[in-house]
Amino acid sequence: MRKKSNSNLRLITVHLPEAYLDGLDQLVHELKRYPSRSEAIRTAVRDLLRSHYYFKKKKLMLIG
């Protein structure tokens, strides 16, 4: 498998409660859902943004 280019990625620092890290590590290490914490977090942020803009678009369609 070809490794993704990181040229369009930016490094950020996030402070999370221990329980969130435990859950994240479980998804990555025990359940093997994601290859890394970073990939799991990128997926969560992407899904949050899609959800937000999807519902925002729907709301505007209902109003307009």
Query: With helices defined by DSSP (H or I, 4 residues minimum), what is the helix count?
Result: 2
Runs with pLDDT <50, length 5+? none
Q: What order do the SSEs take from the amino end to the carboxyl end, as H and E? A: HH
Percentage of residues in DSSP E strands: under 5%
> Major sheet: size, sense and barrel closure?
none
Q: Report the span from N to C terminus.
A: 46 Å
Q: What average pLDDT do the residues reach? A: 86
Structural class: mainly alpha
Count every beta strand, where a strand is a DSSP E run of 2 or more residues: 0
Q: What's the alpha carbon Rg, rounded to whole Å?
A: 16 Å
Q: How many domain modules?
A: 1
Mass-distribution shape: extended
Q: What share of residues is helical?
A: 55-70%
Verbal overview:
The chain is mainly alpha-helical. The chain has one domain (18-63). Helix content is 62%, strand content 0%. It contains 2 helices and no strands. The chain has helices at 18-30, 37-63. The longest helix is centred in the C-terminal third of the chain and has 27 residues, at 37-63.
